[in-house]
Design a protein that fits this description.
The complex is a heterodimer of chains A (412) and B (60). By secondary structure, chain A is an all-alpha fold. Helices cover 80% and strands 0% of the residues of chain A. Chain A has 20 helices and no strands. By secondary structure, chain B is mainly alpha-helical. Chain B is 58% helix and 0% strand. Chain B contains 2 helices and no strands. The longest helix of chain B is centred in the C-terminal third of the chain and has 21 residues. Chain B is rod-shaped and about 90 Å long. The termini of chain B are far apart. Classes of the chains: A mainly alpha (412), B mainly alpha (60). The interface between A and B is large, with 77 and 35 residues.
């Protein structure tokens, strides 16, 4: 094997890397590409292709600094040999990588370069792709600015709205071209992200119509992951339209597909959304049913954050039903987990809930009661000894959001 | 007893999420599109001809 590697030419190694990446094994692909770089070649176009693929492989492996490094090498090389198309592609890849790293200003510059060269070369496909990437950069920038604020979708500060509006403009420009080209897959992507941007801007009706288009195209392709994404995004939009029954229907479809696709994290997410939706519908039995399912998967995946949220939700639902014993049980668990995670807000909420509940139960209760502290102390030390939590990716974006559209107040 | 009932009723009304719930604000984005360069494609286009030619020459 070692001898083979030493004797193998740069090209052979690169071809093997390419094959492995296409087969989905980026990690192995990377080692072949890096070996190819070690061997070296005088053909700069081959080297450029190797750098580019190394960059993409590291991108898919979420090693973005490495991706950045190789896409930079590729760009330099493309410029050196005067390869305009190659320069456009390297710029686009750099833009996407910088976006993920949160460097939005630079990302915009590189994506604009991609757009500019594509237009120069009358490359419509490249132009459309650059427009989509620019939309993505502005969407991410808007979302990242919005994270510092705690408003609901549609209630963001002006700079957030401006970035999101630019994203809408780019997605729409992209849609014009890809519709013209008859590229249905690209249309599907654009509709999905356009829908999400409208959602953040508070244009919930437009979000719905975009996601309906996305759903249609996903079904055309039999792309069940995209179909599931569309259902989930439709559910979110209907929540904010105050149409909770519709939201529940879409979340149920998400759940069904998550189970078919055997994605436990997404299944948990769907149960959680359904629990919240039934809470909004004031059907607490169903809310409990789904929150318990969510809790079970969160425990299975050792997702303590998800578990804490489930306990909080369950505490509220049991309180609403007047089942105070169960409510106390989950409020205590919520307090426990919040302390373990160092979540001060969660801890205070849990303490408030507990003191309310204890009052109802006719017991005197103090949040710094020594017995309670002792219980918590032992529980915390027990939890520390457990394996570290691995947060589910899909759960990281869950936020405590205040929902205050007038509709809700009218309904309740 | 009536005071406990009243408190229970109050608590229940507090729990009804008229204003606040944990909302699963988990919007799901479409995948990124990365630009692709390929060694094999380039190799096929540019080098195949010359390689085949040199092989033929060697064979002769």
């Amino acid at each position: 094997h070692v001898r083979y590697r030493m004797e193998a030419s740069c090209l052979e190694l690169a071809l093997e890397g390419e094959r492995l990446c296409k087969a989905g094994d980026c990690r192995a692909g990377v080692s072949f590409f890096e070996a190819a770089v070690q061997v070296g070649t005088e053909d700069l176009k081959t080297l450029s292709a190797i750098y580019s693929q190394l960059g993409n492989a590291y991108f898919y492996l979420h090693e973005y600094n490495k991706a950045l490094e190789y896409h930079h090498h590729d760009l330099t090389l493309a410029r050196t040999i005067g390869d305009r198309l190659g320069e456009a592609k390297a710029s686009g890849n750099l833009g996407n990588t910088l976006k993920v790293l949160g460097n939005f200003e630079e990302a915009v510059l590189y994506c604009e370069r991609h757009l500019e060269i594509s237009r120069e070369l009358y490359d419509k496909v490249g132009e459309a792709r650059a427009l989509y990437n620019l939309g993505n950069v502005y969407h991410s920038q808007g979302k990242s600015l919005a994270c510092t604020a705690t408003q609901d979708p549609g209630e963001f500060p002006e700079d957030v709205k401006a970035a999101l509006q630019r994203a809408v403009d780019y997605y729409e420009a992209n849609l014009l071209i890809v519709t013209d080209l008859g590229d249905r897959a690209a249309q599907g992507r654009a509709y999905g992200n356009l829908g999400n941007t409208h959602y953040l801007l508070g244009n919930f009706r437009r979000a719905v119509s975009s996601h309906e288009q996305r759903l249609l195209i996903a079904r055309e392709f039999g792309d069940r992951s995209a179909e599931r994404r569309a259902y989930s995004n439709l559910g979110n939009a209907f929540i904010f339209l105050g149409e909770f029954e519709m939201a529940a229907e879409y979340y149920k479809k998400t759940l069904q597909l998550a189970r078919q696709l055997k994605d436990r994290a997404v299944e948990a997410q769907s149960c959680y959304s359904l629990g919240n939706t039934y809470t909004l519908l004031q059907d607490y039995e169903k809310a409990i049913e789904y929150h318990l399912k969510h809790l079970a998967i969160a425990q299975e995946l050792r997702d303590r954050v998800g578990e804490g949220r489930a306990c909080w939700s369950l505490g509220n639902a049991y309180t609403a039903l007047g089942n105070h014993d169960e409510a106390v049980h989950f409020a205590e668990k919520h307090l426990d987990i919040s302390r373990e995670l160092g979540d001060r807000n969660g801890e205070l909420t849990a303490q408030l809930n507990l003191s309310d509940l204890q009052m109802v139960l006719g017991l005197s209760y103090s949040t710094n009661a020594s017995v309670l502290s002792e219980i918590q102390d032992t529980d915390t030390s027990k939890n520390v000894a457990r394996p570290r939590l691995s947060r589910r990716h899909s759960m990281e974006n869950l936020e405590l959001v205040k929902i205050t559209p007038e509709k809700f107040q009218v309904q309740n | 007893l009536s005071s406990i009932n009243r408190q229970a009723a109050e608590l229940q009304s507090k729990a009804v999420p008229s204003k606040q719930v944990i909302h699963s604000d988990n919007i799901e984005m479409e995948p990124e599109t990365m630009e692709i360069k390929s060694v094999s494609e380039y190799f096929n286009k540019v080098h195949m001809g010359t390689l085949v030619y040199s092989c033929k020459k060697k064979n002769k």
